[in-house]
Structures are given as C-alpha cells and as structure tokens.
Amino acid sequence: MQVKPNIAAMRGYVPGEQPQSGTCIKLNTNENPYPCSPKVKAAIGRVCQTGLQKYPEPTAKDFRLRAAELLSSECPNITPDWILCGNGSDDLLTIITRAFVDAGDTVRFPLPSYVLYDTLAEIQGAVCDRVAFNADWTLPLEFSSDREGLKLAFLANPNSPSGTILPPVEVLRIATALPCPLVVDEAYVDFADESCLSLPSQNENVIVTRTMSKSYSLAGLRFGYAIAQPQVIEQLAKVKDSYNCDAISIAGATAAIDDRAWFDEMRSTILATRKRMLAALRELGFECVDSQANFVWCNHPEKPPGELYEQLKAAGILVRYMKYPDWGEGIRITAGTDEQVDSLLNQLESILG
C-alpha cells in the first residue's frame, strides 16, 4: 500500500501525553482542571434520555443562535450565519486549510507556535513559511509581507507556548497587509485581557477560531467554532463533514456558553492561580514570560528544560517539554488547581536544591 509521498514523509502531529490511568498531576496539555458546568451534564442527560437514533442538526443551530447573542457585544452585527461549528477548533483549522491551500502553496505561521499548523500544511503538500518571533514576542514586518504562493496565515493569539498576545490593532494591521486569509486562533483568549473578535467585521480576510476545550472544561467533548463574514462561512461549510458535531457536543457546548456565572467564577480562579504560580516560579529563579493564557512558558538558567521535565515526570508531575528546531526549547506549565500547583512548586524546590 502506498500513500501520497508527502504523507509518507511527514512526522504527523504528536499530542501531549494523555495517561488514562494513574495518579499523576497533569499540567502538560492546558486542560481546565475543574469540572464543567453542572448545566452541561444536565443538557447531555436530556439528549441521552431523548435518544441518539437520529442525526444531529447539521449546523449546530442552537449553539450558533446562543453564541451570536452572547458575542454581539464584541463582534458588531454578528448573526448565526457568521459562525461555523466544528469537532474542536482543530477541526475548523483543518477545514480552513483544506478550503484555501493546495499542493505547492505556502502557509505562514510564527515560530514557535502551535505545532499542528505544520501538520495541516504538510497534509496539503504545502510549503511551511515559519517566521520567528522577535525577542519581545512581537512579530517582524516579514510576517505581513507578500510572497508568491502564500494562501493562508495562522496566528495563535494568545500564542502557545509563550502565552503572549498581540493587540487587536496590530493583528488588523497584519491582516490588512497580507494577501491571504489570516486565521486568528483564540483557543486561550478567555484568559486574556482582550480579543480580536471585532476584526472579522472590519476585514473579510480575518477568521477567528475558538474552542470549548480550555476555559469551559470540555476538552473531552470536542467542540469549537469559527467567526467570519457570512460569505466566508458559506464556503467553509462546503468543506466540513456532514455531521461534524454530534448531538451530545452541541447540547453540552450550548449549555456551557449559557452559564455565565460558572464561567466568570472559573476564569477568576484560574487567573489567580496563574498569577501566583508565575510569581513563585520567578522566586525559584525561572525566567518566565508574562502570560495571557492558562499556562506559563519558562526556563531555568541552571537546569536544562529536558532534565526538569524528566525529573518532574519521575515524581509523577507532567509538564510539556517543547523543542523547536532553529529556535530553542523550554517547558510549558498549565495552571492547574492550587493543590496541583503547590505540589509542582514543592517538587521544583526540591529538584533545584
């Protein structure tokens, strides 16, 4: 059996470790450590009670209606036809890439950033144009420059693994200068001070994607959504699977966005933990980047990040060790519960002596 040469040659996306049993402290994949809203469980129960013998509504209409209401303060003129739902935001990134990128085209994204962008480009047989961040985590003018064959650009904002963010005015400048669509991947935006949700109404080339995995504690449910002008959504909808969101995920995601009291309390808790963890890591000598996400990117001047990762893992604590060719390495640590963070800090103190 032979697959396409570009598929055979690629490494493929490698997710963070996902142990399904044991008692390890898991701070490696930026999951929300707290249970989801009780309203989510109730909504899922009602769907299961009704039965799953019928196909779900193919466009996740209930979610789009409620989301449009809630997002109208950030995105002027938004209606349900500005929203496309997917099986997690990764599904939406895949749909967008398939819609705009052909073999031999170029896909641009920052370095370092979400490694799935590489994979999506390679699946299409496209060229990866990686533009390194400046030392202060801004992007050079090169990122918004034209290039022959450039068909799509990705910008994680807040970025992973750094947790840094570009202000909307800068993102709009980039989008205006680019000759192609710009996907603003806002997977972590609910932990940030500002968002780019107003930009699609200002520029047809801007597509914002979001996920329910992080801030809504629904990583196991798989639901995300994209916001763009209706004529863009109409084209992207042609590429998605017929029923890419199941009845359970639609009901759960709709209940989740509707529970604003739960969301506000959860967000405040995680931001407080992030602030405390960041200060404590710096006291231990770590060089940390100010974060606008639910994680912290750091290095220790006296301890290689790979060694720290291995020693923490041996102690039952998982963090994410990341190494980017031609850029560097570090560890990314999720803001878990206060108890998990205390265990991490105690273990780091022991390791560092």
UniProtKB/TrEMBL annotation:
Record domain Aminotransferase class I/classII large: where: 24-347
Name used for this protein in its record: Histidinol-phosphate aminotransferase
Cofactor needs: pyridoxal 5'-phosphate
HAMAP family according to UniProt: HisC_aminotrans_2
Entry EC no(s): 2.6.1.9
GO biological process terms, semicolon-separated: L-histidine biosynthetic process
Known pathway: Amino-acid biosynthesis; L-histidine biosynthesis; L-histidine from 5-phospho-alpha-D-ribose 1-diphosphate: step 7/9
Catalyzed chemical reaction(s): L-histidinol phosphate + 2-oxoglutarate = 3-(imidazol-4-yl)-2-oxopropyl phosphate + L-glutamate
Organism: Adhaeretor mobilis
Modification N6-(pyridoxal phosphate)lysine occurs at: K214
SUPFAM superfamilies: PLP-dependent transferases
Subunit structure: Homodimer.
Family: Belongs to the class-II pyridoxal-phosphate-dependent aminotransferase family. Histidinol-phosphate aminotransferase subfamily.
Cross-referenced InterPro entries: Aminotrans_II_pyridoxalP_BS, Aminotransferase_I/II_large, HisP_aminotrans, HistidinolP_aminotransfase, PyrdxlP-dep_Trfase, PyrdxlP-dep_Trfase_major, PyrdxlP-dep_Trfase_small
